[in-house]
Amino acid sequence: MLTKINKSIIIPFYDCFELVMQRLAELTAMGLPDDYEVILVNDGSIESKTDLLLLAARKQFPIFRTIGYEVNHGFASANNLGASEAQGNVLCFLSSDVVIRKPFWGQLNNLDNIVLGGRYINLDAGWNAFAINGGPKVIFPYLEGWFIACAHDAFEDIGRWDPQYDPFDYEDLDFSTAARELEYQLEYMSPLFFQHQLGGTIFRKTSAEGRIRITRRNQELFTQKWIESGRWKDIK
Fold first, then answer.
1. Which residues, in sequence order, are bridge partners of residue 9?
2. Bridge partner list, 143
3. 142-143 and 194-196 strand pairing
4. How many whole angstroms separate alpha carbon 233 and alpha carbon 227?
5. Which of 76, 128, 222, 228 fits a disulfide with 161 by CB distance 3.0 to 4.6 angstroms?
6. Cβ(164)–Cβ(224) under 8 Å?
7. 7-124+141-205: CATH homologous superfamily?
8. CA–CA separation, 169 vs 211, rounded Å?
9. Dmax (CA) of the chain
10. pLDDT score recorded for residue 218
């Protein structure tokens, strides 16, 4: 008898597949419950070694299935594709550069009105505070996107990840802001569960100058969507 899938772990990747193998090894060693599925989203990987590592992973860790794009889209689009294929009533978005230090599945119950993350930023971090109409800065608190979990229905209600921020940056601030607009609670887990290797994938594919250009562009997109439109006024 097949086990009913209740929760889905979605891991996007763009090459750097050795990091994905580390996550699969951690999930396997920790005894991932049978009612979980692992969906790997291949976001247009181009390195030949990725295919070889993927074949090796299928033999070592038969706990996942793979979907993907022919060309690279970006973090938001890859996550959305994974969510479209997910069977679980809870979605867990996990970046490949996040070390899983202990089983986190016990934290994923009762998420009906909650978006759960690995780290919560509610101070001015340099990119989430905006001076509005010449007044004092308004801080937009958010959950960092390297681990976010929520009910599947809530994900659709919030509006999914906004692909205008592809390939990366500001999609997590946008998703958190959209959740807050609908009065979902942002909560975070103990740091004992995860260790994020900052830039573990981005800087292997993007120069520092390219990262700055993307960040500035997406900051402007966020400003247009939430501040210039006036939508920020309705967020409690």
1. 38, 92
2. 120
3. unpaired
4. 8
5. 76
6. no
7. Spore Coat Polysaccharide Biosynthesis Protein SpsA; Chain A (3.90.550.10)
8. 9
9. 63
10. 97
pLDDT of residue 209: 85
User: How far, in Å, are 8, 28, 82, 120, 179 from residue 37 at the CA level?
Assistant: 5, 12, 11, 26, 25
Structure confidence at residue 197 as a pLDDT band (50, 70, 90): confident
Query: Is the distance from CB of 175 to CB of 148 less than 8 angstroms?
Result: yes
pTM for this prediction? 0.95
Omega into 191 within 30° of 0, i.e. cis?
no
Sketch the domain layout of the chain as residue ranges: 7-124+141-205
Please state, in angstroms and as integers, the Cα–Cα distance from residue 200 to each residue in 78, 95, 164, 165, 175, following that order. Answer: 17, 9, 22, 19, 22
- pLDDT the model gives residue 234: 81
* Residue where the block lists tokens 């599945």: 105
- Euclidean distance between the first and the last CA atom of the chain, given in angstroms as a whole number: 47
pLDDT, tens digit (0-9, with 9 covering 90-100), for 53-87: 999 999 999 889 999 999 999 999 999 999 999 99
Is the pLDDT at 203 greater than 60? The verdict is no
| Dihedral pair phi/psi, residue 9, rounded to 5° | -105, 120
Q: Distance (Å, rounded) from C-alpha 103 to C-alpha 27?
A: 8
Give the percent of the chain with pLDDT over 70.
95
Radius of gyration of the CA atoms of the chain, in A: 18
Cβ atoms within 10 Å of 219's Cβ, excluding its own: 17
User: What pairs with residue 185 in β-bridges?
Assistant: 114
